């Protein structure tokens, strides 16, 4: 029997179910449903590769042999025909390797690492607002440092933090494109930074209240409104406003509030939930807020969702205060440093900061809950002006 071109046109039409070899690696795979598929088997660098060429009858015998001959030559030259074809298809559809499409693809690949699977859009927003409007349609293989410089120059000094996030995430997208086999310049973002120069922007810390002034402010929160109660609990626990505003009643058990890992910010590499010790005063504030609860949320908005961060900030702003709610974390951290003997690790754990390397954390399997409980009680005693002194709320008619 001939080693190649074994089939006749009539055989291809009437071939029984199964695999049939035309020779030189070209196979016809006939299915039970009557359909058939052409498959080419080649060996590249000692590894067998199977390449689908198309279905019969849309791809006839003559064309299948022609394609098989072409891809055998590619394999004989030491190149992978499957990868060669993928590269040709990408070149034929250059819009498919535009920065916009590669950005979306990179985002999909990273979603599991992001808080809430990136549903808030914060990872994408620096790119969608400042980069993609100008470079979104450009093939990622064509983007160089001058394109990046010209795109980010308008915000490089005026919105430095946003520009930094944009260029860092653009670097991630470029690396993702390279991993897909695209010929991109992985140094383009670093070269762009060199062209843009050092930013003149001086970052500003969020204004914080001096820890010595916190007791007076806490005592002034004497109305049983959601805003006052939320600010009280924010001060007592030292958490960020996001987890506090989204606090659910089923997250509280005894004197511990467990914040889900996905709700925590700034804990990259940490997968465990975060336990927050609740003092007697904190539990009292939670009880006072319970009548406001809706759908399991302790601090619901009047319409839907939860109270906004701006609600808390505006309340302090109306009082003429420079400090903002997030600043109470700084107040607590400074009090820990100046008024207690808490170790660095425990003090950082009070604010849910991740410290040390992943290796050290792997061996140090504790969240210092017992020590943090004692410190939370001491902080509460200080904030309330005594040994957890109960502050009466004003009666609201």
Automatic annotation (TrEMBL):
Keywords associated with the record: DNA integration, DNA recombination, DNA-binding
Pfam families assigned to the protein according to its UniProt record, in alphabetical order: Arm-DNA-bind_3, Phage_int_M, Phage_integrase
Boundaries of every Tyr recombinase domain copy: 204-376
CDD domains: INT_P4_C (cd00801)
Organism domain of life: Bacteria
InterPro entries: DNA_brk_join_enz, Integrase-like_cat_sf, Integrase_catalytic, Integrase_DNA-bd_sf, Integrase_DNA_bind_dom, Integrase_recombinase_N, Phage_int_M, Phage_Integrase
Family affiliation: Belongs to the 'phage' integrase family.
Name of the featured protein: Site-specific recombinase XerD
Upper lineage: Bacteria, Pseudomonadati, Pseudomonadota, Alphaproteobacteria, Rhodobacterales
């Amino acid at each position: 029997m001939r080693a190649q071109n074994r089939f006749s046109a009539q055989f291809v039409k009437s071939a029984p179910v199964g695999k049939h070899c035309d020779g030189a690696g070209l196979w016809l795979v006939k299915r039970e449903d009557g359909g058939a598929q052409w498959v080419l088997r080649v060996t590249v660098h000692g590894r067998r590769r199977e390449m689908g060429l198309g279905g019969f009858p849309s791809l006839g015998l003559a064309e299948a042999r022609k394609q098989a001959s072409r891809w055998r030559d590619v394999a004989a030259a030491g190149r992978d025909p499957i990868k060669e074809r993928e590269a040709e298809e990408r070149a034929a559809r250059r819009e498919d390797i535009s920065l916009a499409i590669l950005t979306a693809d990179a985002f999909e690949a990273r979603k599991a690492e992001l808080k809430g699977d990136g549903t808030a859009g914060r990872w994408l927003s620096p790119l969608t607002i400042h980069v993609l409007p100008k470079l979104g349609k450009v093939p990622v293989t064509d983007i160089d440092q001058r394109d990046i410089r010209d795109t980010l120059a308008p915000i490089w000094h005026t919105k430095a933090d946003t520009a930094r996030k944009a260029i860092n995430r653009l670097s991630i997208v470029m690396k993702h494109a390279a991993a897909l086999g695209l010929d991109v310049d992985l140094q383009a973002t670093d070269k762009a930074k060199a062209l843009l120069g050092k930013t003149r922007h001086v970052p500003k810390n969020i204004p914080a209240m001096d820890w010595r002034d916190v007791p007076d402010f806490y005592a002034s929160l004497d109305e049983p409104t959601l805003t006052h109660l939320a600010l009280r609990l924010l001060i007592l626990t030292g958490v960020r406003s996001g987890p506090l505003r989204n606090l659910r009643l089923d997250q509280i058990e005894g004197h511990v509030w467990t914040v889900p890992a996905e709700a925590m910010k700034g804990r990259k590499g940490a997968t465990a939930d975060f336990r927050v010790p609740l003092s007697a005063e904190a539990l009292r504030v939670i009880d006072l807020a319970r009548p406001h609860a809706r759908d399991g949320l302790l601090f619901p908005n009047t319409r839907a969702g939860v109270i906004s961060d701006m609600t808390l900030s505006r309340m302090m702003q109306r009082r003429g205060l420079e400090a903002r709610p997030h600043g109470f974390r700084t107040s607590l951290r400074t009090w820990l440093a100046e008024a207690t003997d808490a170790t660095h690790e425990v003090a950082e754990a009070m604010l849910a900061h991740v410290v040390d390397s992943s290796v050290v954390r792997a061996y140090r399997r504790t969240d210092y809950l017992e020590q943090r409980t004692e410190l939370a009680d001491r902080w509460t005693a200080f904030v309330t002006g005594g040994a957890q002194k109960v502050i009466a709320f004003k009666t609201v008619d």
